[in-house]
Amino acid sequence: MSDIQIVEAPPGVEGSGFFATSLDKAVGLARSYSLWPLPFATSCCGIEFMATMGSHYDLSRFGAERLSFSPRQADLLMVMGTIAKKMAPVLRQVYLQMAEPRWVMAVGACASSGGIFDTYSVLQGIDEIIPVDVYVPGCPPRPEAIIDGFMNIQKLVQTESGRRREDPKYQELLAKYGIQ
């Protein structure tokens, strides 16, 4: 890793040298390869996700070995498929039960924009009720696209500052969704 260096101790400090790196970078690297996804699958995108977890594509190679089906133990919410408006409060409650920091990935056209279902009963994108970090296009998206979206989440987690969640812009975004 080029970000970690051994630096000579400043005058007056005992020791021959110490490691110098940003704590945010070290924590981000550790978090990005230990994400626990919670799959919220409602239709055909869920089948593609199953293929992604299978031996041919194997999402666990990227640090997502353990799927969590409890929101309190997950830090990545993967919403896949059509979300009916009656299901929206349930999805929002699942999101709110997750501990910070948490990330959201909208997988497929239905979760991203309602897909082909432009009706009164289908939510036209989950970003109407919860903030989304990464969108994965496709109807349904191929497992390669889901892996690419997961890798984008990992890049986001690696580069995210530990104080991002305290940032006024982030607090304003949460207030837009009515989340405190």
UniProtKB/TrEMBL annotation:
InterPro entries: NADH_UbQ_OxRdtase-like_20kDa (IPR006137), NADH_UQ_OxRdtase_20Kd_su (IPR006138). It is an enzyme of class 7 (translocase). GO terms for cellular component: plasma membrane; respiratory chain complex I. Its cofactor is [4Fe-4S] cluster. One of its GO terms (molecular function) is iron ion binding. NDH-1 shuttles electrons from NADH, via FMN and iron-sulfur (Fe-S) centers, to quinones in the respiratory chain. The immediate electron acceptor for the enzyme in this species is believed to be a menaquinone. Couples the redox reaction to proton translocation (for every two electrons transferred, four hydrogen ions are translocated across the cytoplasmic membrane), and thus conserves the redox energy in a proton gradient. This is NADH-quinone oxidoreductase subunit B. It comes from Mucilaginibacter paludis DSM 18603.
